[in-house]
Structures are given as C-alpha cells and as structure tokens.
Design a protein that fits this description.
Strand content: 15-25%
Structural class: alpha+beta
CATH superfamily of the largest domain: Histidine kinase-like ATPase, C-terminal domain
Strand order of the largest sheet: 2-1-5-4-3
Helix content: 40-55%
CATH class of the largest domain: Alpha Beta
Length: 566
C-alpha cells in the first residue's frame, strides 16, 4: 500500500505516541499491582508474626484453635517443619495426608531468603491462593494464605482512572498529530506539484507562493537552481553546436568514442578516411594497436601511430579523456608528401650541421699550410681537425641509419635478441664515459627476457640513450633500466636517470626532432650529431612501439618505450 507524505507522517507519530502511552500505562499498572501486593504481604506478615509469637510462648506444638479466632475467617494457616513436612493446616483435617512441601516455591524461597510469596493453585483442595511463607529461624515455618477469589482479584486490579486519563491524552495528541501532519502534508504536496511542473518547462520559472519557512526556502532554491540549469543547458547547447560545426569543417578526421568503445560522433572526413582504409562500419575493433594501448595503457592518455591503405598513409592520434571516453584523429600524411618535407628539412639541417665541423677543419688546415708552427703546435691543430672529422663521421653514420629507417624493412634482419647481453654490451662500450662522469649503470630486468627485433637498431636505442645521459645529465648520477611485460608479446622499458633533467618542459616534446638542441646544457660543445634521440624514436617505431619522455621524480629524465618480445 502506497501512503503519501501526510499519511506516513501521521502514522509514524501515531505509532510512536501509542507505544509511549502503552509503556506508561503498563508501567503504572505494574507499579500499582506491586504496591497492593506488597500491602497484602505486609498484612500476611503481621499474621505470621503473631502465629510465630504464639508458638514461641506455647511451645512447638500448641493448640491452634484458640489462635484462629483472632485471625480472619478466610485465612489459611499452615505450619511446616524445615524438611517440608506439614504439621498443621486449618483447611486439611489430617496433615499427615498432605505431601511434603519442601519443593513448593514459597517454601523454598522462605528457606533460602527468609520469606516467599506466590499465587498458585493448592494441590490439597484445588483452590487458588495467595501464599506467604516466613521462616523465623525456629523449628517451624509459618505459611499464611488468602483465597485468590474475585474480591482479592478486584483488590489487586489497578485503578482505571489513570487509564482513562491516558486515553483522553492520546485522543488530544492524535488530534494535534493529525493537524500537524495535514499542515506539512499540504505544503509537501504543493512543493511536489511545483517540482513536477518543472519537467516540461524549457524556460525559467517564477516561484509560486509558499509559506515563509524552510519549505519556502527549499522551493526558492529549487527554482533558482532550475533557472541556472536551464541557462547553462542553453549555453552548452550553443557551444556544442559551435564545436560540432568546427569538427565537421576540420581538415582532419575526428571520431569520438564512448567509454564502452561505441561510436558517439564522427565527422565526414573521418568516415571518408576510414572507408579508404577498411571500407566498413566505423568501429575501434579495426584499430588493434589502439585496442592494445587502451587495454595496457597504464597512466598514459595519448597514443600515436600510423596507418596505410589504398596508397594513403595516415597519422593516428588517440586522446583519452577523464571519463575514459576517447577520440581518434586521422590525418592524411601520404608517403610522397612526408618524404618531401623530410628531404627539405634534412637538406637544411645537414647543411647547417656540416657547416661547423667543415669550417673548423678548413681553418685548422689553412693555419697549418700558411704558418710554420713547430711540431708540437702543428700536432695540436691536427688533433683538433681529427676531432672534427670524427664529428662528421658520426653525423654521416647517423644520417645513413635514419635513411635506412625511412626506407624498407627488408634492410634490417629481425631475430631473437638477449636483452641482458645487449645491455651488458652497451655498458661495456660506454664504460670510459660512464667512469669519467662517475655514472652508475643499473639494470633491473627479467634475466630471461628476449626481444624480437634487429640487434643493431636495438643496440642503437640503448646506446644513444646512454650517450645522452653521459653528455647532458651531469656527474655522479645513476642510470636505471627497468622492464615489465605488458602481455605475451610486448615489453615496456623504462630508461631513467637522476641527473639535471629538463628545467623547461616545453622542450620535452621536441627532443626527438632531428638536429634539435636545447640551448641550456645541450649545445654543440657537448658533442654528438643531434640525431641520437631521433634515431631512438624511429628505431622504436620501426619495431612497432612508441616512446615518450618526461621529467623523472625528483629529477632527471625518464624515457618509456614499448618493444616486442619473442
């Protein structure tokens, strides 16, 4: 049965008041009954005391008939030995026929506590009595009893005046409860009807008349919040339209996915790019690398990859939002346009990077040709020229490797590579530089870890990262290499140092750019071709992984990347 607020309120207070009134009545009636019972016990105790004095004066077996004339006519007198044997009873002519009374409740209580009382039916004549037994410490126990008849029952019954008073008080209380419940129920119904009227309202509302109390304040807050929500909904709807219009006109394909990976919205360009690749209904299942990243992303919220199909190449970017919904952005970057930009960039960068060592070598040789410097000075200039040729050699070697990475995969042979031995080799080859800078090289990877890839490229990844620490991290630092399996096919590596790190984090996203140098602490004076981290990125991507860099805690740099396991 469904009750409204008024009915529930009245019923709740009514039940509470009824329980309270019943508790008072029961307490008062019990108290009055105990009071009257105690009065009867005192009366019987007085009779028992007279009998005890009589026995004390006349001996243990005095004639009792002369005493009975001084007692009420309906009273029953019984004398018992402490063993429970009855020696006298004014109701039963022959006490010898009566059974032993040692187990009678009033007798047991008298023996144990000095006195005992109970209302029960006599086994001698099947009549109910109010028994009272008293042990005075002598040879006999005195038991007095009054017939538990209508007159005695009426005497023990409590006075009904108090009950009538409680009933009258209950009726008055019920009236006030009903009145209060009706008042609050009417106000709550008014508030409910007002709240229900808001459901179909699109614009703001005016507050109807409410009582000047808490309910009126609640209604006012409700109307104020409703108007605020409606205003925000309109604003959000306008902003959403702007956003959708912007997404539809983007030069990139954008698709938003719900947390359960179902499609929420996509622009026309994304559908066009998707159909170019798969010619099917849009679904995240067509991006296995994205699904793998979503399943094993840890704390990362960005992923970048590439897709090819029908002569087109696309850059795929994944952004994950706080509610685990995400967006996939497809950008058309075909191989021809990508190569053209890379060639232009490479030509300019190579010319810029070659200028310094070539100019230095030319200057040193001109000095040697045009001046008689002596053997020691000439040897010094030759060493400087030789150092610049080493820089040129590194640059040419790195450029050659990048060219091969940009080419076909057939240029590199994939095999099983022991990761521990590979890192031992890197540590041995860089031992001189590590010792000069007092750098510790700590490897914490599973001893049986085996990678699937090209050993030369994998070596270049760890070697270039190590050289980067030696050149830029400072003295007395520690390199820590760790690895953890993401699944049966991939391993997540962490290459971290506790050196100087990157004070300006704006440089972090550009560290993998070719020939990119940071002004502070990463100038050409530290050596290197400027292509080391670019080689690292391309080598990791060549193995189907991705790499990210961030400032380590409390300081230093941490590179994290994924490589395939055997």
């Amino acid at each position: 049965m469904n009750l409204n607020f008024q009915q529930r309120l009245v019923l709740s207070f009514l039940v509470i008041f009824m329980l309270f009134a019943a508790a008072i009545v029961l307490f008062e009636q019990g108290r009055m009954r105990r009071y009257k019972t105690e009065a009867l016990q005192e009366r019987l105790d007085a009779y028992a005391g007279e009998v005890s004095q009589y026995i004390l004066l006349r001996g243990n077996r005095p004639p009792m008939d002369s005493l009975l004339q001084f007692l009420p006519a309906d009273i029953r007198l019984t004398l018992l030995e402490r063993s429970g044997r009855v020696v006298y009873d004014n109701v039963v002519p022959d006490p010898a026929t009566m059974e032993n009374h040692a187990e009678r409740p009033e007798i047991k209580s008298a023996v144990a506590k000095g006195s005992g009382t109970i209302i029960r039916t006599s086994s001698s004549n099947d009549r109910p009595y109010l028994y009272y037994a008293k042990d005075y410490g002598g040879a006999l126990i005195v038991r007095m009893a009054l017939p538990y008849n209508i007159r005695l029952q009426s005497f023990l019954e409590p006075d009904n005046a108090f009950l009538y008073f409680i009933i009258a008080l209950f009726l008055i209380g019920f009236y006030f409860i009903y009145y209060t419940g009706r008042y609050f129920g009417r106000t709550v119904r008014h508030l409910r009807n007002f709240a229900a009227s808001l459901d179909g309202t699109q614009n703001g509302v005016q507050l109807p008349k409410f009582p000047d109390n808490e309910f009126g304040e609640v209604a006012g807050r409700l109307a104020e919040n409703f108007n605020h929500i409606r205003a925000n909904e309109k604003h959000l709807a306008q902003e959403r339209e702007k956003l959708l219009l912007h997404i539809r006109t983007l030069a990139e394909g954008v698709c938003f996915f719900n947390p359960d990976r179902s499609v929420a919205f996509s622009n026309g360009l994304f559908v066009q790019y998707f159909n170019t690749l798969f010619d099917d209904t849009v679904s995240v299942a067509h991006f296995p690398d994205v699904e793998k990243f979503l399943d094993n992303r840890g704390g990362d919220d960005y992923y970048e990859g590439r897709l090819t199909g029908n002569g087109k190449e696309f850059l795929l970017r994944l952004n994950i939002f706080e509610d685990n919904s995400f967006e996939i952005i497809l950008t058309d970057v075909t191989a021809q346009e990508r190569n053209r930009r890379m060639k232009q960039e490479l030509t300019g960068n190579v010319a810029h990077e070659l200028r310094t060592p070539v100019t230095s070598i030319r200057g040193f040789l001109e000095i040697l040709l045009n001046n008689d410097l002596g053997e020691a000075k000439a040897h010094e200039y030759l060493e400087r020229a030789y150092s610049q040729t080493k820089t040129l050699s590194e640059l040419i070697s790195d450029m050659s490797l990048l060219t091969r990475l940009d080419g076909t995969q057939d240029a590199f042979v994939f095999a099983e590579v022991d990761a521990v031995k590979l890192l031992d080799r890197v540590q041995a080859d860089t031992a001189v530089g590590l010792l000069e800078k007092n750098i510790a090289f700590v490897v914490d990877i599973p001893p049986e870890l085996t990678l699937r890839g090209n050993e030369s490229l994998l070596y270049s990844v760890f070697r270039n990262l190590t050289d980067n620490v030696i050149a830029h991290a400072g003295n007395g630092v520690e390199i820590r290499v760790g690895a953890a399996r993401l699944d049966d096919a991939t391993v997540r590596f962490s290459f971290a140092d506790n050196g100087s790190g990157m004070a300006n984090e704006q440089h972090l996203p550009r560290l993998f750019e070719r020939f990119y140098r940071v002004d502070e602490g990463r100038t050409r004076d530290t050596g290197g071709s400027g292509l080391g981290l670019s080689i690292v990125k391309y080598a990791v991507q060549f193995h189907g992984g991705n790499i990210q860099v961030r400032n380590a805690v409390p300081h230093g740099l941490e590179f994290t990347f994924i490589l395939p396991e055997k």
